[in-house]
Request: fold
Amino acid sequence: MNAKTNTPATGSVQVETFNTVVIGAGFAGLYALHRLRDQMGVSVRVFDVAGDVGGTWYWNRYPGARCDIESIHYSYSFSEALQQEWTWTERFAAQPEILRYLNHVADRFDLRKDIQFNTRITSLVWDEKNKLWQVGTKDGIIARAKFLIAGTGNLSVAKTPEFKGFENFKGEIYSTGNWPHEGVNFTGKRVGVIGAGASGIQAITEIAKEAAHLTVFQRTPNYAAPIGNAPMDSETDRQVKAHYAEIRTKSRNSFIGLPYDQAQPSALTVSAEERRRVYDECYAQGGFRLIFDSFADMLFNKESNDTAAEYIRAKIRERVKDPKVADILTPKDYPYGTKRPPLETNYYETYNRDNVTLVDIKNSPIERITEHGIRTASGEYELDAIVLAIGFDAMTGPLLQLGIVGRNGEKLADKWANGPLTYLGIATHGFPNLFFITGPQSPAVLYNMPLAIEDHVDFATDAIQYLRDHDLDVIEPTLEAETQWVAHVYELAQQTLLPGTDSWYTGANIPGKPRGCMIYLGGAPAYRKICADVQNNGYTGFALDHSAMKHSTATA
Ligand code: N01
Reply:
């Protein structure tokens, strides 16, 4: 067992040294802690800026927040006992229930005692001499660790609003990604929501039911489709629990990490009637079936994609009474699924309500926030509250704000100035013993997140175990392996429709952020096979122990 040790810091404060420090106490951090501490017996400390466990589900408490993957799949698979004892009340659980689940996991595995909350890590510096990471806050070094696991999530750094004049606004301002714990009462208020992505769509539907008037400021319309939520029925629960192992295996063998298996090869090789039948069935079933269980070429063939895009456009026209409003809500200039498709319940019907107004800010942009509301090019809208649902500095943002400095004083921010460079989306050359959980250039956000997280935590912790078993100190990807991986990720992306669309998938949602492809698009099964081969061959593409230092010097 690697006992934790105390090593003196500069000055008199004792700084503890751990085998592994984990950043983040969401799905990733909780499982990493359990695996390292309880299954491997190593010393570990988790840090999180939040006051409790939950990660994204701790912060995103806005009305309507719920997962968009069925809860029986959007949950941990690592413990059969946990799978059997937890029962979801809805097909797609709402945020409070997911947070209760993560609290249950923390209690069940007694995790909190090794988590330090209310602690923002702002500096992670590699100490080459001692082969340790120095973990710091703005007040200085608070821990040291041989290994670092970044479980910081992909959508945890809010986008900074570009609008001028916020300081003048006399009303309330909220952000979906950091919602007040006590909730917000919009009764009798004039509310404006900026943004109509997945968060905006969920929040708009609920806020409209409460507010005196809701004004939605939408720039780009989305291809939203019904989520198909319903109470969880006991027969489904029983069936799932009886076959959980098979279901999880089937999920891990599918592109997106869900046990879907109906997709036909192409929308273009079937009749118009058959296409319609498939789309009707998937639209009625809900979840991500329309995009991932209809036709397998949806993200690869524009013509095929057009058939689904047109199907959704027709649904929007059917569901929204005012044709002008329907037109503003209809996406026209990018393929379906190239922005993450939001799922909804009565979202389009919300625009049939008398108390809801849609403002097209693509044609009439927001000019500024005023004392009393929002001024666009076509007029001023008076508001008591503004809700920002403008998204995140996705994938790289959470890692870059950790202040990571690797070998030879290299800053991760400098290395990634033109976009992320990783090996397998798990590690990056020049930054030894550092593992990203669902990092950029892994399938991450296109792979059912809890399963993707478990796969990565297993990879990282297996690597740590391998080093221990072989009396090695350091693991770091070679520059060559990294270069090849990045090229492979880009080559795969070019075969899809994704690079052409502005979205957080490509970094285009953040002004000034380098545009690139941050997702491995070969699907979960291909990715999992690559990772398994790397592991089974003694960590191909990684330099181990002192060879890492030599390699780095040789390629510096
Ligand atoms: O963020 P987004 P999100 N002026 O980036 C608009 C996950 N998630 O928080 O498209 C005007 O998708 C922006 O407009 P445009 C899920 O993976 C999951 O909604 O840039 N508008 C867009 O409408 C999702 O994909 C769930 O033109 C501006 C919106 O704000 C991801 O999180 C629920 C603007 C941002 O949409 C992010 O979703 C919620 C500006 N300057 C989220 N800047 C589940 O269901 C931005 N916008 C599990």
About this structure: Residues 194-388 form one domain. DSSP finds 18 helices and 21 strands in the chain. Residues 90 and 231 are 4 Å apart (CA to CA).
